[in-house]
Amino acid sequence: MRESKQGSAKRAENVDRMNVRRFALLFALACALLPALSLPVAAAPTTALSNALSSVRDLSDSAFDAVVQWARAGATRPVVAITPADRAESNVLNLGYADRQAVLEWLRGNGRSALYARGASDGDIGSRRPRAVGPAPTASPNPYRLLLFGSPAIGDTAQGNVAVFGGWAAVREDARGAHACISFRNTGARTATRILFEFPISDKAGAELGKMELDRRGTFSPGVNIHGWESMSAWQQGTNRSYDENCTALNLQVAAIPLRSARVATYRILRVEYADGTAWTPAATH
Questions:
Q1: Pairing relation of β-strands 192-202 and 208-220?
Q2: Would you put residue 105 in left (φ > 0), alpha (ψ -120 to 50) or beta?
Q3: 56 to 78, 80, 104: CA distances (angstroms)
Q4: Closest C-alpha to 214, from 243, 188, 186
Q5: Are 171 and 201 in contact (CB under 8 A)?
Q6: Nearest CA to 261 among 212, 219, 207, 223?
Q7: Which of 56, 138, 183, 197 is 20 to 30 A away from residue 91, measured at CA?
């Protein structure tokens, strides 16, 4: 009788242990499944949002660029929705606040996350276009600073029968160089073949800081305008490289501190040579 009671106790103990193991296993499974069960299911976009995205998605590249610029310039309402871009802008502005902000964030280059949160997919939004991938690019600072450029004297007349009718000069912001261009005309009766220009650079008090030279050689017939770049922006953006012949540059490996103080540039003509073998130099250098 005693052995039978001990066997029953052991069997009960084993059952209890199995129940504990089953409970632990079920608890572990529940814990593993809980995060998945609690994940939010993304809602589908509203009909209005789908329609607005469709109107943007179907735009040509140029029209899409126009809508991007519109969004980044404040997203004002078009007066009359005539073009596809106008209609797309109106559709965006007619959305509810959250949908509208999500579309504008995307157009302004801040990614698609806000649209995803509104239930939109990449299929709804459309293929990625360069203008909507990242923030609007910022303009690079100009490496050059313009100087005040002008005649060395009031009512300056032609020097050596060479009249200057245009020009400009600039220094690099890092003080490692300078650039100057000039336009001129031979006002004499003889053809010139060489003109030696000098460009003094001064600070705002008139103290000369340095100078550049341009040794211009060619055939300069009387009365013919010889054009250089008319402005710094034309030089930086232009393609007519023949104008470079009327320019000179100073390029340094190490910054020249005086160039930081440069404010004014002018010109002098040091020598003019003519096709007949004669030459002109300023009286002070004879």
A1: antiparallel
A2: alpha
A3: 15, 17, 11
A4: 243
A5: yes
A6: 207
A7: 138
Q: pLDDT tens for residues 159-192? A: 889 999 999 999 999 999 999 999 999 999 999 9
Backbone angles phi, psi at 113, to 5 degrees: -55, -45
- Confidence at residue 269, expressed as pLDDT on a 0 to 100 scale: 96
Residue 133 DSSP symbol? T
Measured in residues, the chain has a length of: 286
Question: Over the stretch 61-118, which tens digit does the pLDDT of each residue have?
Answer: 888 888 888 888 888 887 667 788 889 999 999 999 999 999 999 998 888 999 999 9
**Is-contact 95 48, C-beta < 8 A?**
yes
- Which among 141, 108, 130, 241 is positioned nearest to 181, based on CA atoms? 241
What angle separates helix 61-72 from helix 97-107, to the nearest 10 degrees?
110
Cα–Cα distance, 90 to 127 (Å, whole number): 21
